[in-house]
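RECORD TYPE: inverse folding
INPUT: structure tokens
STRUCTURE:
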């Protein structure tokens, strides 16, 4: 649209102006637009069928189990007339509901749990498959509304480019399959932006259809994540901008103030009412609990260990470049180039569009990242929390690619350009087909591909590979037919327990929690370990250990299954606990020799054993090797104890006391370091009081 004043009679179309003196050209343009619209709609249908077929029975994650239980608790609240408040923290159908989940909206959960309850699917093995089917609808809705927004700005060609850029982004496609937290929010966010643009462009008399669209999409977004309240701020900011910068519109708005006020009230108060009545925690105290939730969301108090750029950090102290860097290394290079070209062309061609809509798009897309950086928000799991801004990014890229095709003019050149685009996406598409359904773990050439990124970043951060790894174990081992209870260790206990119980219901089993580095501390016959939360240096040097089965991404084992009926490492730990140092030493040596498992987690124990056997150089060697990784406080504690014993034996009491004090600092409640320290000090005194020869 050319720069001009907006009036009440102004059309809402923002197509480039066509010369009406040439009817054949106009007819051709209309025919082309009609064809592009059909292709767009057929594309959306094809995308939905693709994700439904390829995404059925995809694995799920521990977080989704929690959210599903939370949804059931909310369902119980309504079914009991408000008497059942399990969502605050209690038990619902035998499962505990995390108290932090009250601060999460329940819009998606109301739909998903409701469908499962009505159909009875919540009792079978496909409870989460239903959730994923619904989620996949929301994912395609996000693409649909992104395309419609692009059409409003630059036509159906831009809509097509925008939708396909979104669909072919591995990270976005992967999350559509199962991410029931971030994809619904993304769909609600871009839908609200679309209806807001429609509302603003039809001022001062927007239709009730548009008003209801803004209200419902805003309510759904906010009731998915509280951060959706930003959208109301955007609406009123740009409402003021539209009115203040246009005298005619300002006059018309005053004349229609009653109707406009009524519609704005419906959006704000009506939307807020929808949020409250479908969110039990807010329903208990609509004002106080709303602001409490808003405060929690600003600084989510959840500390999670994450790998970033080859370093182990925590979610409360992420660097400023965390989100930009993650996006840079996980979005296909061709799309990154398209975004840059699109941004340049979008700015250059801005006179052809309503610049205020362009500004709305830019602010709603990039302000959340800026805010997160400035406030040092807690972040983890890559950029999944910011999937909602990605439609806006692809929209800018899509408009840019559309402008290039307009510049080429001749159909042959345009087809050739589309072929170039497909060629640019060939490698990411081929990778996705090979590694389905793990598209969300894609890393581009800037990261060196998945094979290098695996040791630098969190990859399978939702442990989706656990499902297929368990299936391999259950299909190849006689666990399901064993008369005895099989003990299975895992670092994803909730998922392992749920999945085996629902998919292999005849199995007698017990799942115990065990970290990968501390796997010798409990008795088990089978162990299932995902690489998540393993520090980069240890991951690179010590993962995977010898294993029986694995689920791979890009030919790299990500989740492994270990079968060990001898459990010499566990027996050695028991011997050490009972101060049978010689027996423990023999068992550990035999374990390392027979399994060829270079388990650094054992070295801190070996340092204590070797020191206790007066094999001091070995004790020092094993302790230092264990301390290279700082795998856990307990292992560091034992390593320092081993050093304390070894240096005391060497009569280097200063170093011995120093290391034992470090051990006490790490775990002050443990008595071992204190007892050893007392012995060392007494020995030092005894030796110092002995007469010198």
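DESIGNED SEQUENCE:
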């Amino acid at each position: 649209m050319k720069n001009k004043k907006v009036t009440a009679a102004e059309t809402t179309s923002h197509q480039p102006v066509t010369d009406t003196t040439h009817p054949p050209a106009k007819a051709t343009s209309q025919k082309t637009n009609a064809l592009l619209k059909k292709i767009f709609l057929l594309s959306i249908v094809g995308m939905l069928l693709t994700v439904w077929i390829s995404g059925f029975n995809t694995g799920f994650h521990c977080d989704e189990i929690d959210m599903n239980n939370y949804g059931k608790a909310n369902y119980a609240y309504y079914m009991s007339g408000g008497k059942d408040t399990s969502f605050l923290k209690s038990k619902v159908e035998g499962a505990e509901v995390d108290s932090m989940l009250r601060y999460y909206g329940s819009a998606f959960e109301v739909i998903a749990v409701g469908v499962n309850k009505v159909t009875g699917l919540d009792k079978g093995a496909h409870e989460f498959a239903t959730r994923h089917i619904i989620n996949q609808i929301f994912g395609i809705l996000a693409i649909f509304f992104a395309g419609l927004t692009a059409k409003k700005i630059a036509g159906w060609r831009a809509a097509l480019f925008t939708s396909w850029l979104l669909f072919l982004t591995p990270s976005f496609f992967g999350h559509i399959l199962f991410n029931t937290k971030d994809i619904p929010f993304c769909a609600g966010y871009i839908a609200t932006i679309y209806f807001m643009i429609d509302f603003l462009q039809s001022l001062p008399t927007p239709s009730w259809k548009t008003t209801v669209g803004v209200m419902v999409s805003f309510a759904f977004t906010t009731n998915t994540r509280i951060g959706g309240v930003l959208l109301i701020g955007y609406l009123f900011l740009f409402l003021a901008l539209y009115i203040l910068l246009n005298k005619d519109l300002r006059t018309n708005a005053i004349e229609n103030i009653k109707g406009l006020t009524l519609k704005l009230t419906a959006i704000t108060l009506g939307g807020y009412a929808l949020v409250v009545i479908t969110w039990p925690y807010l329903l208990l105290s609509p004002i106080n609990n709303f602001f409490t939730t808003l405060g929690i969301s600003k600084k989510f108090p959840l500390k999670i260990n994450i790998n970033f750029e080859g370093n182990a950090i925590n979610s409360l102290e992420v660097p400023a470049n965390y989100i930009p860097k993650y996006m840079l290394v996980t979005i296909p290079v061709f799309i990154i180039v398209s975004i840059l070209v699109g941004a340049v062309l979008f700015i250059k061609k801005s006179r052809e569009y309503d610049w205020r809509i362009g500004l709305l798009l830019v602010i709603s897309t990039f302000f959340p990242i800026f805010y997160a950086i400035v406030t040092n928000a807690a972040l983890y799991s890559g950029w999944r929390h910011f999937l909602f801004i990605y439609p806006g990014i692809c929209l800018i890229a899509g408009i840019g690619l559309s402008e290039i095709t307009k510049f080429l003019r001749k159909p042959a050149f345009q087809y050739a350009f589309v072929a170039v685009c497909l060629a640019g996406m060939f490698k990411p598409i081929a990778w996705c087909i090979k590694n389905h359904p793990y598209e969300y773990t894609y890393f581009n050439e800037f990261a060196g591909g998945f094979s290098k990124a695996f040791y630098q970043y969190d990859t399978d951060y939702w442990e989706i590979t656990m499902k297929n790894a368990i299936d391999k174990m259950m299909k190849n081992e006689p666990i399901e037919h064993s008369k005895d209870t099989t003990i299975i260790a895992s670092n994803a206990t909730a998922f392992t327990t749920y999945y085996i119980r629902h998919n292999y219901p005849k199995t007698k089993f017990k799942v115990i929690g065990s970290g990968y580095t501390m796997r010798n501390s409990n008795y088990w016959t089978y162990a299932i370990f995902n690489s998540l939360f393993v520090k980069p240096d240890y991951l690179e040097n010590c993962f995977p250990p010898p294993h029986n089965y694995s689920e791979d991404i890009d030919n790299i084992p990500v989740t492994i299954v270990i079968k060990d009926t001898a459990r010499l490492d566990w027996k050695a730990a028991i011997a050490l606990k009972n101060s049978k140092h010689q027996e423990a030493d023999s068992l550990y040596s035999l374990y390392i020799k027979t399994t060829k498992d270079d388990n650094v987690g054992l070295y801190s124990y070996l340092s204590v054993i070797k020191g206790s056997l007066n094999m001091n150089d070995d004790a020092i060697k094993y302790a230092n090797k264990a301390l290279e990784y700082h795998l856990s406080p307990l292992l560091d504690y034992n390593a320092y104890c081993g050093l304390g014993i070894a240096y005391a034996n060497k009569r280097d009491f200063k170093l011995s006391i120093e290391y034992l004090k470090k051990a006490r600092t790490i775990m002050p409640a443990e008595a071992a370091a204190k007892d050893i320290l007392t012995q060392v000090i007494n020995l030092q005194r005894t030796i110092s009081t002995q007469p010198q020869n």
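NOTES: Confidence is low (pLDDT under 50) at residues 1-22.
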